[in-house]
Amino acid sequence: MPTVSGAAGKRADITLPSGAPSGKFVVSTVSEGTGAVVKKADWVTINYTAKDWTTGKDIPSSYDKGQKPQLYQAGSGQLIPAFDTSVVGRKVGSRVLVVAPPAAAFGSKGSSGLGVGPDDTLVFAVDILNAVPQDATLSGRSTPPPADLPQVKENGKAAATITVPKGATAPKELKSAVLIKGDGPKVTAGQKVVAQYTGALWPTGKKFDSSWDHGGATAFDIGTGNVIKGWDQGLVGQTVGSRVLLVIPPSLGYGDKAQGPIPANSTLVFVIDILQAV
User: Fold this and answer.
1) pLDDT single digits (tens) 234-246
2) Tell me, what's the pLDDT at 8?
3) Confidence of residue 121 (pLDDT cuts 50, 70, 90)
4) Which of 33, 99, 135, 219 makes a 20 to 30 Å CA pair with 57?
């Protein structure tokens, strides 16, 4: 078996044995963390070091300059099995050795972009940094929004209730209020954010969408134009662990185009819990 040395949280040293790979998919805990156990469908964040056992060469790793940790939903098939299933049942803070035969890596096609040949066996040292369950919620003292903004009633593990003040005029500019102030790092453009959210229409307060309607926490890129401008502008600079109320005018939402249950020229109200940013 390959061996792994070096401190968890830094690039690992992987030493390959002289023999050929056995063809077995092996997952072994090198050092056990003290955090929560990762469950299927958790949003997990990892760093990893990688080596090609077949060629003996290093392959690109998240610790390389310019690279970032990986955020994905464990056990969902989003990534190769070497990452997808190896973290399930392991504790946050653990370093895990993964020996991935072709079927658990890139198969008979390999990966030209990573320099992995057809039918290569790969070895990974995976550091589990964090895990956010799909039903995660925020805790902390909640501050009501100003009286002229929509009011929010938290409903636990369900969509929030949003009530728009009667007779209030929809703002023409983005409005925001921090209902719970998180003590995590600030969200920066280019990160991937994990959040719970509820969206409602102004002035009715009618819900048109919620993460709770789709199984819970969802992940999205922020500050890159992949979400509406109101989210990009309203969430960048907020801190992880915060609950944020956003009132978004049509110009920063979907404009004069209808979007599913959202009519054209709608002012949107969102309550967003920022659970993680990677």
Assistant:
1) 999 999 999 999 9
2) 80
3) very high
4) 33
For residue 192, the 8-state DSSP code is E
DSSP class of residue 102 equals G
User: In which element (H, E) is residue 232 found?
Assistant: helix 229-235
- List CB contacts of 22: < 8 A, sequence separation 6 or more: none
Pairing mode, if any, of strands 58-59 and 43-52?
antiparallel
Mean predicted confidence (pLDDT) in 117-137 = 97
13 contacts 78 by C-beta, under 8 angstroms: no
Q: Whats the size of the chain, residue-wise?
A: 278
Q: Round to whole Å and give the CA distance between 175 and 173.
A: 6
The answer to whether 185 and 249 are in contact (CB under 8 A) is: no
Provide the 10 A C-beta neighbour count for residue 110. Answer: 18
* CA separation for the pair 9, 114 (Å, rounded): 22
Return the H-helix or E-strand segment holding 230.
helix 229-235
Position 9 confidence tier, pLDDT thresholds 50, 70, 90: confident
Q: Is the distance from CB of 92 to CB of 85 less than 8 angstroms?
A: no
CA distance 141 to 134: 22
